[in-house]
Amino acid sequence: MASMLVPLYTAECAPPNIRGRLVGIYEIGVQVGTCLGFWINLGVDRNMAPTSSQWMTPFALQLVPGGLLIIGLVFMPESPRWIAKAHGRVRAIKTLSHLRGLPDDHSAVQEEVDDILHQLELELADSMGNTRAAWKELMQPGLRNRVFLGVMIMIFFQMCGSNSINYYSPRIFRSIGLQGTQATLVSTGIYGIVRLVAVFFAMYFIVDRFGRKSMLIGGSIMIVWPSLHHSFFANSDITRLSQCG
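and the corresponding structure tokens:
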């Protein structure tokens, strides 16, 4: 739920000019947690006896960021878009004024609320409050293609194996010759730092400068090229072996 709702809430609350950067900070937070998790595993391996406490400690530490998230949400308002849809213009203005740190009658607040309400009116006019009509609109070529693209991006992201590397990185490093539990855990921690640094620079400095589409295309090429390269040389080796045979 957090993986879907946190970026959505951030996007609906963020000013348009830094929306990409603020949503990217969520991903930076994910990588910080992943990196800390790798080093915590090394810490408990070095300093705790191999009992049930050794694996329960990393699990228990996850309660800290989760608890902070719950506490922080108590003090956060609903997003202006949801407020406008559920309660109307007046409360939406108050919420947006609070988030932007501007008075209720400020022109920027008024214009942004006008844009939100206009978008909601268009959505209501298209669907007429009918769920079937909303699904019908979703299946229109322009929207359907966007939804399909978003779903397929997440599917291909999982198929690239990033999570598999996260889960099995000690075993992967052991398979390429690193010996000892601590050596593999240190290598995993370094891998986590590399991921964190790369994501930080991409999300904080690059995404709003070069655009999402350019980054998506560039990232996809960097993912696909090593696979094609590996497959080509693997097939070449098989061909040479068969000729030798």
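(Above: one complete record from the training split.) Residues 77-130 form one domain.
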